[in-house]
Write a structure and sequence with these properties.
Number of domains: 2
Number of strands: 17
Oligomer: single chain
CATH architecture of the largest domain: Alpha-Beta Horseshoe
Number of helices: 16
Largest sheet: 7 strands, mixed
Length: 499
């Protein structure tokens, strides 16, 4: 009798408020193919994830203003030191790198799996390199995958990691058992679409897999391996579609990720069946929809609103939406009232700026006044609202920043949380490609270097260094602090720190 093959799934994405969706998919698919599956997640050794918009402390506004001043310093050395500190604080894995490495290495040594599969974000490149080295010493192959291996510059940097047997590039879930089998058998894994490797001759081989079209063919994720007792609440992540129904925002890296390329949707029946499945199996009634834009597919959006309580009685859920300019964007007052009745307790939307002119420059496809109306209607319906905002987009002026501060001042009563971030210029985005082709098209931006391993572009926005821009930013930060200092609505508190 042939011994059962075993794999260890290492989760470095660290969503410490709920299980990691990609790991759940991998566990189901590999178990169905006869593999023995074990999971390692940082939360198992007490390493927490990032809390979104934690309640600000007494001196946090002062810290935020000082941090912005340092981040936009004219002194390159000051900025670089600040960036290193910020990267270290970005996640629990980076803060506790040696602890996570020691625990994951111990799991590899004790389990001695036939293969180690690592699901990762790019910020964990150093952690992955050390895991590859540890596995190589034991003669165990390592397969690494994640959402942002869709750019050749990134792939070329990562595939050279010593001890890395295969790098997954694209949506290969349904072919994963065959890929693992090839790696374990020491065959060339690049014969499979969506796999890159570096041969002993130093030549890199492979291809990026095309987007998966039939999403209903993917089995429901298995979250049974996660440490349920360690989570603050029992929450399950679900995704109804991949990509974004809008998908045009110039700064967005999500639409360039492996799953973000083009929009595809599951059927409403398939999604509702999954809700019922997790409700029964894990005794959960809290769900986070991880879609980039849950209202991309009107049929699925309204079917969910109408069907959630039938398949998961007592359910509460949160999601991200896009207040687009379509005649029917699914966000009418009636839609939002129905969503609240169905258990929706929080919606996140990309405001990005209070200036319509800057929003148009970003290619957001939204109207500022429409977003204001959606926020007000959602609040009246009893739904907590959250906005994301971007500071430092090319072409941004002092007046644009002032417009953002004024928007929050006017509509703060309809917003419960704001996530304000300085622009990250990500490789592969429309904005980055424009900067490569024609640097003059990114007004005010000075590019220093590209960092393919993290898919980031080291840059400086000279406009942000002006005293007038800093004063306007200080006013914006004050408004953000005022909103985030409010207590979260009782109805949405199960999801505090999630999204």
């Amino acid at each position: 009798m042939t011994a059962q093959r075993s794999v260890l799934l290492v989760d470095l994405n660290n969503f410490a408020r709920y299980p990691t969706l990609p790991i759940g998919y991998l566990a189901t698919i590999l178990r169905s193919a006869g593999y023995q599956v074990r999971v390692f997640a940082p939360l198992m050794v007490g390493v927490q994830g990032v809390t979104r918009e934690p309640a600000p402390g007494r001196f946090d506004l002062i810290k935020a203003k000082l941090n912005h001043r340092v981040a936009t310093s004219r002194n390159d050395t000051v900025r670089r030191i600040r960036d290193r500190v910020a990267m270290h604080r970005l996640s629990g894995v980076n803060r506790h790198e040696q602890e996570v490495l020691a625990a994951a290495t111990k799991a590899i040594e004790e389990l001695r799996p036939d293969a180690v599969l690592v699901s990762t974000y790019l910020i964990y490149q150093d952690v992955c390199a050390q895991l590859c080295a540890a596995s190589q010493r034991l003669g165990i192959p390592v397969i690494v995958g994640g959402p942002y291996f869709a750019q050749r510059e990134v792939i070329d940097d990562w595939v050279r990691i010593p001890g890395l047997s295969a790098l997954i590039a694209g949506e290969v879930e349904l072919r994963l058992p065959s890929i693992v089998a090839s790696v374990v058998a020491k065959e060339d894994p690049s014969i499979h679409e969506g796999v890159f490797c570096s041969g002993s001759d130093g030549v890199q081989r492979g291809s990026i897999a095309a987007p998966l079209r039939d999403l209903d063919s993917v089995p429901f994720p298995d979250y049974s391996d996660f440490p349920w007792s360690a989570y603050p609440n029992r929450i399950v992540p679900i995704i109804t579609g991949r990509g974004c129904g809008w998908g045009v925002c110039r700064f967005c890296s999500d639409v360039t990720s492996t799953a973000g390329r083009t929009y595809r949707s599951r059927s409403a029946a398939n999604v509702l069946n999954e809700l019922a499945f997790h409700h029964r199996k894990h005794d959960v009634s809290r769900f986070v929809f991880t879609d980039l834009k849950l209202n991309s597919n009107m049929s699925v959006w309204r079917s969910l609103i109408g069907g959630v309580q039938h398949v998961a009685p007592g359910a509460k859920w949160i999601a991200a939406i896009h207040a687009g300019m379509e005649d029917d964007n699914g966000l009418s007052r009636r839609d939002l009232e129905d969503a609240a009745k169905s258990g929706c307790v929080r919606l996140t939307t990309g405001l990005e700026t209070g200036s319509q002119a800057l929003s148009d420059l970003m290619k957001k496809g939204t109207r500022v006044e429409t977003i204001a109306r959606v926020l007000e209607d959602a609040t009246r319906a009893g739904i907590s609202t959250r906005c994301t905002m971007v500071l430092g987009f090319p072409g941004e002026t002092v007046e644009h920043v002032q417009a953002s501060a004024e928007f929050l001042s006017r509509h703060g009563s309809s917003i419960e949380r704001v996530s304000l971030n300085r622009l990250s210029l990500i490789m592969g985005t429309t904005l980055h490609r424009s900067a490569q082709r024609r640097p003059s098209s990114v007004s005010g931006i000075e590019i220093f270097a590209e960092k393919p391993g993290h898919a980031t572009v080291d840059h400086r926005n000279k406009v942000m260094q002006s005293p007038a821009h800093r004063r306007a930013t200080a006013k914006l930060l004050t408004q953000v602090h005022r909103i985030n200092a409010k207590p979260l609505s009782q109805r949405a508190r199960d999801f505090e720190g999630v999204m």
